[in-house]
């Protein structure tokens, strides 16, 4: 699990160590981590450090201090280092260390930003160490001009320069992921003590590149994370496995109320997603024409035109491929939500939900649908506002509805009403294809239907009961993203269709589980040798 924190949480965790006079030690650990990441990155590209150039854009706070120390370590490895000081001052000890190591210093107040930007953009490595967790808003004045110019030069340069953000890209809000332009997009963000929330939420995540967390010794003082990301090991532990004596009912039955005469394909794709995600059985409810299509495409599905009350299931999927004019389907959706069973509520069901929900109801809006939902709840956010602050928006929707809210996008965020958030970014932009969301709803529905057997599994991982639904939805988003990526890989990195994502799901599931099982076997044979 990758854990992320607000800037304040990290600073509070640093406090006991700062109070014992370890501030410089922490900074040097951070700087070592950053310098080592640069060296490793160059090695991985078959490049050395001796004679290569590095330019550090430096602010006046501790973030600038990290950057200057890191550059002095790189100078000791033979790199040609230049620092551009954007403030009237710089961290004194770090600047002294940098100068002792032979680094060249430019001051932004004495030189035209354009000339300094041109020099920085010619470097092999640029370190962005202007602002860190102490930032208030975005870059201003000549620092903003400098960074905008470097970003523009690098955008047109064909990607030779490697950009590393120190702790976080300057101009990205550490707590919210909001972006205050200009921001220099990083290839790699080396972040200290724990990831920052803003690196795991869009639009901040767009600028972070790969995120590497460097421990600096404050970890035991960190609180419960406010944002978490499930990694492959978590997936392996949390995905359900059928018991030896399982039967289709014990494995979970999902009821699907999706599709309409206008959008029949959504029903098929939702069912295909569910069938490929380990559910014991799928029961489909909808208009006869759609049911016929579902039968033809997925003979495994039991179809009926009946009511929700007549169908025994463990969870419901409602809403994909339905609009306000599909009254009968909407009534079924409302009945399903009223049943008290776990529900994934997608697309057309979102406007038809009661105002108050429980966390077992998982809403799956994209940004436009989330804005409409918030507006129905009396908020003023439009789609642009949601996109500019996804983390705050998804949390607000969950808090206001009491439901679990999954916001789809390049980064998928899942908020529980408690404020706990999961952030998954396992997919590929090829997933932005019609019907992809229907498959996702099917996957999450299937996992909800199987959740009855899984309570213990989640509590063992420290997931609170009310947050379990968000964890299940995050698991679904991760699986769907990885399946999309795998489908694209099978197409030599080319496009995928929604059906292709569904087809890739079983193998993706299998690979993730096999990874963990072989790990487990290894551990077991080590700790419990056969006698
Ligand atoms: N406290 C510590 O000892 C450690 C801090 N660390 C680093 O320190 C960073 C936090 O350091 P600071 O608290 O000094 O904060 P920053 O380095 O993020 O920046 C704060 C400085 O920038 C100025 N500033 C704030 N917003 C600005 C804006 N929009 N435009 C221009 N100037 C602005 C402030 O007046 C202040 O002088 C972390 O991100 C991390 O990189 C790490 O070295 C680990 C140890
Ligand atoms: N740029 C992107 N990168 C990765 N995944 C994406 C991107 N854009 C969309 N997705 C994912 O693709 C799916 C799209 O769902 P949705 O918008 O509901 O599509 P549709 O309504 O056409 O089925 C979601 O799982 C979303 O997270
Ligand atoms: K920075």
What percent of residues are in strands? Answer: 15-25%
Question: CATH superfamily name of the largest domain?
Answer: Ribokinase
Query: How many strand segments?
Result: 19
- The percent of residues in helical segments reads 40-55%
Question: First CA to last CA: what distance?
Answer: 35 Å
CATH class of the largest domain: Alpha Beta
How many strands, which pairing sense, and closed or not: the largest β-sheet? Answer: 12 strands, mixed
Q: Let me know the average pLDDT.
A: 94
Q: Determine the structural class based on helices, strands and strand pairing.
A: alpha/beta
- What's the CATH architecture of the largest domain? 3-Layer(aba) Sandwich
**What is the global morphology?**
elongated
Assembly of the depicted chains: single chain
Give the radius of gyration: 25 Å
**How many DSSP helices?**
18
How many structural domains in the coordinates? 2
Do you know the CATH topology of the largest domain? Answer: UDP-N-acetylmuramoyl-L-alanine:D-glutamate ligase
Sequence stretches where pLDDT stays below 50 over 5 or more residues: 519-531
Bound molecules: ligand NAX, adenosine-5'-diphosphate, potassium ion
The largest beta-sheet arranges its strands as 8-1-10-19-18-17-16-15-14-11-12-13
């Amino acid at each position: 699990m990758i854990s992320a924190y607000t800037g304040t949480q990290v600073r509070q965790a640093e406090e006991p160590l700062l109070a014992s006079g370890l501030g410089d030690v922490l900074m040097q650990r951070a700087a070592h981590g950053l310098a080592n990441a640069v060296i490793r990155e160059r090695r991985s590209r078959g490049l050395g450090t001796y004679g290569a150039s590095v330019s550090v854009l430096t602010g006046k706070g501790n973030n600038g201090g990290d950057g200057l120390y890191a550059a002095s370590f790189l100078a000791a490895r033979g790199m040609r280092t230049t620092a551009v000081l954007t403030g009237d001052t710089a961290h004194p000890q770090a600047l002294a260390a940098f100068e002792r190591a032979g680094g060249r210093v430019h001051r932004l107040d004495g030189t035209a930003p354009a000339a300094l930007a041109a020099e920085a953009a010619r470097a092999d490595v640029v370190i962005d160490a202007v602002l860190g967790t102490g930032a208030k808003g975005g870059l201003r004045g000549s620092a903003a001009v400098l960074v905008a110019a470097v970003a523009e030069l690098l955008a047109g340069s064909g990607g030779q320069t490697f950009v590393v953000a120190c702790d976080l890209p300057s101009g990205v809000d550490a707590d919210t992921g909001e972006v205050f332009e200009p921001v220099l997009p990083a290839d790699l963000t080396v972040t200290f003590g724990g990831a920052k929330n803003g690196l795991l939420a869009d639009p901040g995540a767009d600028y972070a590149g790969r995120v590497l967390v460097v421990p600096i010794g404050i970890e035991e003082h960190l609180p419960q994370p406010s944002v978490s990301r499930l990694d492959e090991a978590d997936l392996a532990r949390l995905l359900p496995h059928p018991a030896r004596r399982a039967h289709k009912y014990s494995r979970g039955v999902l009821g699907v109320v999706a599709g309409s005469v206008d959008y029949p394909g959504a029903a098929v794709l939702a069912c295909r997603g569910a069938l490929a995600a380990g559910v014991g059985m799928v029961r489909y409810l909808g208009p006869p024409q759609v049911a016929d299509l579902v039968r033809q495409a997925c003979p495994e599905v039991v179809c009926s035109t009946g009511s929700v009350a007549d169908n025994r299931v463990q969870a419901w999927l409602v809403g994909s491929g339905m609009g306000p004019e599909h009254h009968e389907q909407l009534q079924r959706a409302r009945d399903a939500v009223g049943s008290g069973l776990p529900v994934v509520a997608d697309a057309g069901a979102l406007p038809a939900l009661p105002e108050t929900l429980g966390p077992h109801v998982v809403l799956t809006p994209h940004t436009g649908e989330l804005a409409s939902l918030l507006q129905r709840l009396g908020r003023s956010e439009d789609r642009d506002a949601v996109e500019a602050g996804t983390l705050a928006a998804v949390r607000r929707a969950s808090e206001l509805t009491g439901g679990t809210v999954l916001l789809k996008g390049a980064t998928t965020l899942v908020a529980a009403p408690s404020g706990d958030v999961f952030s998954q970014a396992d997919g590929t932009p090829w997933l932005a294809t019609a019907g992809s969301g229907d498959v996702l709803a099917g996957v999450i529905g299937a996992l909800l239907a199987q959740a009855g057997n899984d309570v213990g599994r989640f509590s063992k991982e420290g997931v609170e009961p009310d947050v379990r639904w968000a964890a299940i939805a995050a698991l679904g988003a991760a699986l769907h993203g990885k399946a999309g990526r795998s489908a694209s890989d099978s197409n030599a990195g080319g496009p995928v269709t929604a059906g292709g994502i569904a087809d890739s799901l079983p193998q993706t599931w299998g690979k993730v589980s096999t990874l963990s099982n072989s790990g487990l076997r290894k551990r077991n044979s080590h700790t419990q040798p056969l006698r």
